[in-house]
Design a protein that fits this description.
mainly beta; 3 helices; about 400 residues; 2 domains; eight-stranded mixed sheet; seven-stranded mixed sheet; disordered N terminus
């Protein structure tokens, strides 16, 4: 591979199309004496982790020809595990005629039930490749532990999009240039596009069509570090380790799931003369912190009545048995189930301004899947409940580190 490098400085220029960088074509990309301009790095724009960028042009996830659970260029799709090596990221800017194009979320993530997953156990709960996108920020998240850096070619293969000078993600008939920023050094890359390494914190800009005079320059405000001391969660545990009480339960207030269907989820059991036959059984974990203090999630959400009085008893596919924060996820089909559905069964609000009745303070949400920790910027109700997923809701005072929960006796 070859690079043309120079040390970057603060760039000042006229911006077009995007407010972040400038573009031009033909004579517009020439200076006053007719010599071509060399692109410069734009002034740094600081963004929160998870911030979406660009104009949507592609659907969520991989194309049919991409990663659907089968091995792809030496990458395997593995079911979720309690722990995995930490993830780092490279950042991709795809810019077509001056317009930044959104890199879709969920590339490298394969939903449960996908027939491309050969292993039946993994197929039941879904799988993930070690190269993936979790949001629309353009961050390509890569799992540590590989002997060689992952490559841009592997990512595009997982996406199911072409990557060649004549065709980048379906954009053809336009000139292509690639710029790489490592630290403060901006380089024009002239090697094989497929071989370009996705090294940690690298920013890659693929310019398609009109020439840019300013190259995008993003600096990311990443989540706080993960705690190095896991909180061990034992099923049925009681006491202060679960947090302070104060969140309303729905045992006697007639809110939420009281036996009737809630957001398409039925309550299964003698009460409704139905039998619970879950397709799979996994666990997510929910922790809510208010001004740095953990609040316990009340037990028996999604469990209605008394199993000793069968005519009163039924269970929703989303429920809990204790106040540890463990959510039992037991769907009867492959439809995605969400944190919003759990809160509806609980009978509590879940918005960016009100979480379980706790309102009037900033709401920040972190999601951890193994070693992949990130800030979630979307609608809290849309968060999917997945195997070993940890969801931390921060209300008010920021956390200095993100707690790590070990579901010690929850095998899945």
């Amino acid at each position: 591979m070859q690079y043309k490098s120079r040390l970057t400085g603060i760039a000042i220029g006229v911006l077009c199309v995007s407010t972040l960088y400038a573009c031009g074509g033909g004579s517009a990309n020439q200076d006053v004496i007719g010599q071509p301009l060399t692109p410069k790095l734009a002034a740094a724009v600081v963004l929160n982790d998870g911030t979406g960028l660009g104009m949507a042009a592609f659907p969520k996830g991989a194309a049919v020809s991409g990663g659907q659970g089968q091995p792809v260029q030496g990458l395997s799709c593995l079911k979720p595990d309690k722990s995995s090596p930490a993830f780092s990221y490279a950042h991709l800017n795809l810019v077509v005629d001056g317009q930044q194009i959104t890199v879709p979320e969920n590339i490298g993530l394969v939903s449960q039930g996908n027939l491309g997953i050969a292993d039946p156990e993994s197929r039941a709960i879904g799988c993930a490749y070690p190269v993936l996108t979790s949001d629309t920020s353009g961050k390509i998240r890569t799992q540590a532990g590989n002997a060689q850096p992952y490559t841009l070619g592997q990512f595009f293969a997982l996406w199911g999009q072409p990557l060649a000078e004549a065709n980048v993600a379906g954009y053809t008939g336009k000139a292509v240039k690639v710029f790489v920023k490592d630290g403060t050094v901006l380089s024009e890359y002239s090697g094989s596009l497929e071989a370009l390494p996705l090294t940690a914190n690298r920013e890659i800009t693929i310019q398609i069509g009109s020439a840019l005079t300013l190259i995008p320059n993003f600096e990311w405000s990443d989540p706080p570090r993960m705690s190095t001391t896991p909180v061990v969660i034992k099923r049925g545990a009681t006491g202060p380790s679960n947090g302070q009480s104060g969140l309303e339960d729905n045992l006697f207030n007639n809110k939420g799931g009281q036996g009737d269907a809630v957001d398409s989820l039925l309550c299964y059991g003698p009460r409704n003369q139905s039998q619970f036959k879950e397709l799979y059984h996994v666990h997510s974990h929910l922790a809510i912190y208010k001004d740095g203090v953990r609040l316990s999630v009340p037990p028996f959400i999604g469990i209605v009545g008394n199993d000793e009085v069968p005519s009163t008893f039924c269970v929703y596919p989303l429920h809990n048995h204790d106040a540890t924060g463990t959510i039992h996820v037991e769907p009867v089909n492959n439809n995605m189930v969400t944190l919003g559905q759990f809160f509806k069964i609980w009978g509590q609000p879940l918005t960016r301004t009100n979480v379980a009745g706790q309102a009037g303070m900033p709401v920040v949400i972190y999601i951890k899947d193994g070693g992949n920790l990130r800030k979630y910027q979307g609608d809290p109700s849309d968060i999917e409940l997945k195997s070993y997923r940890s969801i931390v809701v921060q209300l008010g005072t920021p956390l200095t580190e993100i707690p790590v929960f070990d579901l010690a006796d929850q095998l899945q």
